[in-house]
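Quick start: read one record
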Amino acid sequence: MPGRSAGAAEWDARLSVPGSPVCAPDWLTLREGADAAARASELVERVRAHLEATVPPGEPAVITDLGCGTGSMGRWLAGRLPGPQVWILRDRDPGLLARAAAGMPSAAADGAPVTARTEEGDLTGLRAAELAGTSLVSASAVLDLLTAEEVDALAAACVEAGCAALLTLTVVGSVEIAPSDPLDVVFAAAFDSHQRRHTDGRRLLGPDAGAAAVDAFAQRGAAVESRPSPWRLGADQAELAEEWLRGWIGAACTEQPDLVQHAAAYLRHRLDACAAGELRVVVGHVDVLALPTGVS
């Protein structure tokens, strides 16, 4: 974007490639517990009912996990679903794929076997033919890194292939921090603007991605539900809260460089509260479930 600093361009580059902060293994591992606690478990019941109605008895449900990272979605979901399952773990980072495959559970909720195989590739440009035979597409914390066109293409591929989609933990642009500070809203607005940034000719959806996904699936006739899935970070998530704060403030300063003059003092104030066990952070997300028409 015109007028942006070299530092901003460097930050954008780090956020947009494998191994960057948003998909680095250490960060993914750190956030896994908060992700598991936040996901809307009631949507899993809808997924169970869908699979029971559509997967022939004795045959495995085929679940394609897009942008699987270290495999946290599979670890969370596989053991909550009954029946045999075959997971296709798809990511563009071979190192993450290896970790995901190694960490997958071997048994479903009822003890049925769970197996997994990996598939290197980006989730953008996915076509319905690649989802042939898939019962469910899953993804976690990836929609906000896509463009409107990419979200639309993902919905089109899922609907054309006749598979359900469970898309969790998309940011919605809502952050609540206690104790409050007047700068909270300033940093939040700058961060949201950064999430919607232009990078490599792409305009990312950021906090608009959840609503875009709902619209894209609904316009194609899918039955769509969404549920809030906020992170709730307290004293028991101090390490995650600190790392989130550093990234949140850094991205805000990249987007709005005049915030740099306030960043150090603001971060220190927040980290002091975190160390004292007083900091509470609620980061808003949304989970979206889309089912083929006529399946309840």
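The radius of gyration is 19 Å.
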